Amino acid sequence: MTKQDVFGNLKIAVKEKALKYTKQRELILETIYNSKNHLNAEQIHKKLTISNKDDKVGIATVYRNLLFLEKTGLILSISLNNNLKQYEINQHKHHDHLVCMRCGKIVEFINQNIEQEQETIAKEFKFKLLSHTMHLYGVCENCQ
Amino acid sequence: MTKQDVFGNLKIAVKEKALKYTKQRELILETIYNSKNHLNAEQIHKKLTISNKDDKVGIATVYRNLLFLEKTGLILSISLNNNLKQYEINQHKHHDHLVCMRCGKIVEFINQNIEQEQETIAKEFKFKLLSHTMHLYGVCENCQ
DNA sequence: GTGGCTGCAAATGGTTTGCACGACC
DNA sequence: GGTCGTGCAAACCATTTGCAGCCAC
Predict the structure, then answer these.
(1) pLDDT in tens, A33-56
(2) Range of the domain at A122
(3) Domain count along chain A
(4) CA–C1' distance B130–C25 (Å)?
């Protein structure tokens, strides 16, 4: 997904709800898109203040827009253990997370067998499955 | 696991670390043991104030002991989405969670196929697996 | 008796909210 | 021009911490 796609999706989402397309929304989304790592609200705010000294974005705006972007499905959040919520661009490819407990590295993966097994479980308990999260915690190769 | 086992485990954990066995620790652990549902800190505190009007337990003590009990492995915590941490007795039987998004009901389950598949994934990414959480979100039979 | 434990209240810190001003459509 | 969005600061709320007295060992 290119940056143009990402901004395009934002424009569509905004138009659909008769909301405004603002520089701040674009900047926040761009920051998440450009980051290799998952970011929390404060990290996003810090990146914005550093790279945009003249055009500042308030922390409240960051929080408001993270909620907005998540609700519209443009970004995804993941909250590990008792830590802060971290955000990533929604590539519309579902995946789960493998987390290193030493360095905090997050690796994304997808396993079809597990996805299928989950459906079986849900059926067994008569649940209608909407979503799921799976986090594997361990120590990555570098940190062992 | 009987209540005697639970209290026995607490006595052992406390003795091992040369700490004190207090009424409050026992009460908090008992509350979690007696509850069918997962409880958060505030719910535990409320239950204690209702059932023990004379012998009151401060909210700070609840938090301090929840951390203590979790660290010693007597209880487990699960934090759903962006909500509060909820606690349950550690039965030493690993399980995952199926959560109803309407009524909040939590069902525990265990699936050996998924456990195995997780090991495969960890190996593939050269992670040493320590633990994992899996939460399936959906709508339970009653709420559909 | 001593060191951990408790209750209380104050502090903390991430997140939310009220409000007046500014910007998008 | 009207409405939504923003920045700022204050409020919020779950959790943590400092401290003086208390209690288990």
Answers:
(1) 999 889 999 999 999 999 876 678
(2) 96-143
(3) 2
(4) 53
